[in-house]
Amino acid sequence: CHSSLAFAQNHRRKNIIANRQRSSKVWEHFMKATEKQVECKLCKVKLSFHGSTSAMHEHLKRKHVMAENEESPFAKRKHSSTMDEFLTRPTKCTPQQANALTEAILNMLVTDKRPLSMVGDQGFKDMIKMFNQEYYENYLPGQSHFTTLMERKYETTFEKVKQALRAVTGSLILTADVWTSRATEAYL
């Protein structure tokens, strides 16, 4: 009686493992070598097997990057749909966020020494539209507004420099150099 119960439990366990083998795509790259070992079809390495496919997944991931990627199309789909949702989800833009984005664009123009006309270029507009469509449609200023913002930034920065120079109590030495670019433009 006890041996028939053990036989039934062992038979049930084998059926569960067989069903799991059918449901996991990892078995496309492995075959049973013995009751407690599986063999990789790609490199013939034998792994210990105790009913779980974790070691096989890990082997494919570490030793056969391509095989692991082929084996796991579900993860790829999951990430794609998440990325699709991110790209297609309309992004809200409050006036405060719009001001921060406009300031960031102005700082990019100043830092990277980009021409103000860049904000009117189609590629720039397409990029902004991709990042935040609502900002593009409702808040993105034109070149004239950025010109005004640039002039204000210049005035504020100029005042800060003047205040810093006034705060100097000792000697101050300034040097300047003029150079000409290949396009024969003079720079100070």
TrEMBL record:
Claim: Transmembrane is one of the keywords in the record: no
Record's GO cellular component terms: nucleus
Pfam short name (any one): zf-BED
Span of domain BED-type: 21-71
GO molecular function, one term: zinc ion binding
Signal sequence coordinates: none
Subcellular location: Nucleus
UniProt xrefs under InterPro entries: Znf_BED, ZnF_BED_domain_contain, Znf_C2H2_sf
BP GO terms, sorted: post-embryonic development
The entry's keywords: Metal-binding, Nucleus, Transcription, Transcription regulation, Zinc, Zinc-finger
Keyword NAD: no
Cited PANTHER family: ZINC FINGER BED DOMAIN-CONTAINING PROTEIN 39, ZINC FINGER BED DOMAIN-CONTAINING PROTEIN 4
Protein name: BED-type domain-containing protein
Organism: Nothobranchius kuhntae
